[in-house]
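User: Thanks for the earlier help. One more: UPF0303 protein GCM10010238_00880. Can you show the sequence and predicted structure together?

Assistant: Of course, both are below.
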Amino acid sequence: MTPEPPPSLEELEAQERRLVFRTFTHEDAWALGSLLVELAREREAPVAIDIHRAGQQLFHAALPGSTPDNDAWITRKRRVVERYGSASYLVGARFRAKGTTFEESSRLDPDTYAAHGGSFPVTVEGAGVIGAVTVSGLPQLQDHRLVVEALERFLRG
């Protein structure tokens, strides 16, 4: 079986335009985080899950098989979303599309920032990016897809 190709820049940018909240409350963070836990448990995914809003951690879960390294990855991926206002996977893909890598060309400390998939902006209509939902523990594209799937389900509500 051939692995599914990664999404194009256009697809990734379309995800960000589509996955926007009207509001985002503490209760929303709990419900979205709980949905991510449910999806990860169904797949026996060894992930850690984190939701931040305006610098405050609103949700965190570490499932069996996850490690403290996953929390470090979460922090580094979330910082990319906070700095660039885009999904960590999209930021990395933009660098790759230019024939380089984030690590080579961003001039940012790779111990502080990681443009690897798994952190997605929490964007609110009229307010912009106010936070991030992040997963770590799977290969980066799978982390990204898990977050996108949860956001799509949550926003369909």
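User: Great, one quick takeaway?

Assistant: DSSP finds six helices and four strands in the chain.
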